[in-house]
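Researcher: Quick one. two chains, 948 residues in total.
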Amino acid sequence: MSDERRSELRAVFHPRSIAVVGASSDPRKSGAKWVTGLRAAGYAGAIYPVAASGGRIAGLDIYPSLSAVPGDVEYVVASVPARSVLQLLDECVSKRARFVHFFTAGFSETGSSEGEDLERHMLEVAHRGGLRIIGPNCIGNFCPAAGIPLGPVPAGKTGLPGTVSFISQSGGMGAKLVEYGFGRQIRFSKGISVGNCIDLDTSDFLDYFAHDEDTRFIGAYLEGTRRGRRLYESLCRASAAKPTVILKGGRTEAGSAAARSHTGSLASSPPVWSAMLHQAGAIEARNLEELADCLLLLQQLGPIRTRNVGIVGGLADGGGGISVSGSDACNDNGLSVPPLHPRTRERLLDLIGEVGSILRNPVDVSPAQFRGLDVLHEAIRVVASDDGIDLLIIQEDVDIMHSFLGVDETREVNECLVKLPQETTKPVVIVLPVGSTEAHRVAVEEQVLAAGIPVFPTMARAARAVSLVSGRPG
Amino acid sequence: MSDERRSELRAVFHPRSIAVVGASSDPRKSGAKWVTGLRAAGYAGAIYPVAASGGRIAGLDIYPSLSAVPGDVEYVVASVPARSVLQLLDECVSKRARFVHFFTAGFSETGSSEGEDLERHMLEVAHRGGLRIIGPNCIGNFCPAAGIPLGPVPAGKTGLPGTVSFISQSGGMGAKLVEYGFGRQIRFSKGISVGNCIDLDTSDFLDYFAHDEDTRFIGAYLEGTRRGRRLYESLCRASAAKPTVILKGGRTEAGSAAARSHTGSLASSPPVWSAMLHQAGAIEARNLEELADCLLLLQQLGPIRTRNVGIVGGLADGGGGISVSGSDACNDNGLSVPPLHPRTRERLLDLIGEVGSILRNPVDVSPAQFRGLDVLHEAIRVVASDDGIDLLIIQEDVDIMHSFLGVDETREVNECLVKLPQETTKPVVIVLPVGSTEAHRVAVEEQVLAAGIPVFPTMARAARAVSLVSGRPG
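Model:
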C-alpha cells in the first residue's frame, strides 16, 4: 500500500466533517441516532444532518440536501432507501465528499440481479467522481480517539482508545465485538464495518491497519470474498506485521447458506479457508467469543509463545476437580501441564504441607488458606518461578470464595492476584467463571483486567486462547 | 437396588440428626462453618457440634466427645485430622451412627501406602459396626428440602428444592455446580460429594437417584472407579430411568495424572470411557459448563429430540452475522438449520418485508423493529409455527439492544420473549451473551429463566447442549 493510499484511508477514521443523509428530527429513527451518537461521543468535527424534511436534531439544524450544507463534507453516512442511492452518489460527487458509507441494505445480498446491477452502477458513479464507497449494508467507521461510535447508537459510547483494530463484514458482529470490548476492557483504536464490500474492502483495511501506528493487533470477521488472491496477500502482509485474528463466518453448510443471504458472499469450503488463514500466518477463531478472547489476550500480554502451563486452583475450597478439568482443557488445546521441578515441590511442601494439597501441577493451594494469605500468595509466586513453566493460569471462583471465605477474604485474595504481574516475569491468566454473585464477580473482573491480566470465563476458553495466540491450536 | 437399601440412603439426605465432629468456637474454622451453615440453612433436625475444646458455636453447645452427645446421631460430619479417624469411627459405632462423611483428606489420594492401609482399616471398622462411610476427602451431602447446604459454607445457601440431583467425586466441582445452579436457576433435589469412595460410591447414589421420586435428572462428575463393571451397570440403570449427564474428569494425559493425585483414581483411556458412557445411554459432557448446560436444558424443557433448529437473530441491530455464526454453531454440533417452508417465508415477507431481512432460517428479524413490537413478536411466532422446525434458538443481546433501542424497548422485547412458551408448543432456547451491561443482563436472564426458558451465554454452548441432550453430539 502506497503512503498516499494509507493517508487516504486515515480520513475514514479521522474525517474533518461528517454528513448524515437520511437524518430525522424523530430521535427514534436510525438517521437521527447517527447524529445523536456522534454528538454524545464528542466528535470534534462538523456534523451535518441532512433530510428533505428539515427540522432539528441533537441541537443541530437539518439541511434539506447535501448541496445545501454550508461547509466541506469529507465523510457521508447514508441512511436512505436503496432507490435513492444513485442520486445521493451524484450529490456526494458534486459536494466533493471523499467517502460515503451506506447503512442502506437491499443490494446483492438479496440475491436479485437488480441488487447486483445497482451495486455496479454505484461503483461506476463513485469511481468517475473520485469517491470511495464503504458498504453498502454496513455500519461504517468506528474510532474512539475521534469520538466516532460504531453505528446508530444514541448514547455514543466508544470506550477509551486502545491498540486493537478490527474489520467486520457484519455490522452486528462488529457491534457485539465492541460490546464485548466494553465489558472486558478490550480497547479499540479503530473499527470498520464493510458490509457488501463493493469498493473499499477487507483487504484495503487490513493493509491500512498493518501500517497504522496506533494499531498493534488486528481482528476481523469475514464471510467471504470475491477477490481471494488479493485477500490472501493482504492477510499475509497484515499477519507479518501484527498478530491478526480472523473469524470466518459460514464455515459450515448452513452457515455458508446464511452468509449468501447476509453479505452476498460466496464462501469457499472450510478446509480451504483454514488452510489459507494458516498459510497467511493468521490466527483462526471459530466464533466471536474466541475472536474477543484472542484480542484480549494479545492486548494484555502481547504476542506469547506458550507450551508449558502452570495451573493453580483452590483459592478457597478444594481445587482438585479444577486441577483435573483444567489439565484436560489444556491438553485438549495442545498445551502441556508439566510436572514441577523437585525443588519447586519442596518449597511448596514447606509452605503448604501435603495433606489435602496437590503439589504437582496443577497445584491445588486450598490448604494454604488455613496458613494465611501470605502463604497462599507466596505459593503462587513459587509456582510461577518454576523454570519449566511459561505461563500461569489461575482459577478464581468469586462465588465459591464468598461462600467458603466471606467477602473480606475474597477481596484480600484478589489483591494478591492483581500484584502478580509486578512480581513475576511469567504471563498470568485468570479464569473467573460466572456464578451466583455476579455484581461482585464483575467488580473483581474489572480490577483484574485493570492490572493488565487477561480474564476468561472458563478454563476451556483460557486454554483455547493461549493455544491459538501461541500458534498451537490442538 | 433393594427397597431396603434405597430407604437406607434416604437418611443421607434427610437425617434426623447431624453431629459435626471437629467443630470449633472460632467461626473461621471449617468445623465451625459446617455448624453455622446448617443453622443458617434452617436444618430442622438436631445439630450436635463436637470438639474436645468445648465452648459454643452458632448458639449451640459444643460437646466434648461424640459419646457425650445426649440424643441419637444419625449422620456424622467429620472434620478431624487423618490420625484421629479410626478412633472417631469406633466412637461412631458405639453411638450407633448410620453415616459418617469425612471432610478429612490425606488418604489414598496422596499415593502413600499408609493412606491406603488406613482406608482399609476404616472400612473394616465401619463394616463390623454397621456404619457407612462417605468419602474420605469429600464435602458430603446436600439437600435443599432438608436445609442441608453443600460443604462448610457459613451462609448456608441452598437454593429452592428442584428436580436435579448430582454426584461429584470432587467437592470443588460439586460446589461450583451448585453455584452455577444459584446463578442460573438450576434447582437441586439432592447432591453428594463422594471423594475417595472407599465405601458408598458413585454407583450406590446412581441407583438411589434412579429410584428417588424427587429426582428427575441426574448429573455426575467422575474421575475414575476401582469397580468399573459395577459403575457401568448402575449407569445403565440410571440412564434407562432418567436422563443422566456425566462429566469424566481426567480425559487427557495431564488430567488423568491430576486425577490420580486428587481422588486416587486410576483413569482408563478417554475412548474407553466415552464408549462406556455411550453404551450405558448416558450423556457425556466435556467440562463443568457443559454439565450445567445440559442439566439446565433438561430441567427447563425435559428430554428433547431435536434435529431441526430455527434460529432468530437481530432483535435490535442486524442479526446477519449472528445468523451465520449461529448456523455454524448448530452444524458444528450435528444440528440442522433447514430452510423454512415457502408459506412461512411468505408470511414473514408480508410481516417484515425483504430489505435488510434474511427470511430463510436463520431469520434476521431486525427490520421488524421499524414496524413495531407486535410485528417482531408475530414474526417469531411464525418461525416457531413452521412444521420443519423442532426447536427455536433466539439470540438476545441485551447490551446491543440497550445501545440501539434503549432500556424501555429492551424490556418490551423481553416481555414478548418470555410469553413464547405459552404461545408455541416448540421448545424455545435463548442465547444471552455477557457484555457491557451486566446488571441489566442478569435481570433479563432471571426473567427468562423464571419463564421456564433455558438460557446460554453463547450460541456454541446452546447448540452443544441441545445436541447432547438430543443424543446427537457432532
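The longest strand of chain A covers residues 161-168.
Researcher: Thanks, that's what I needed.
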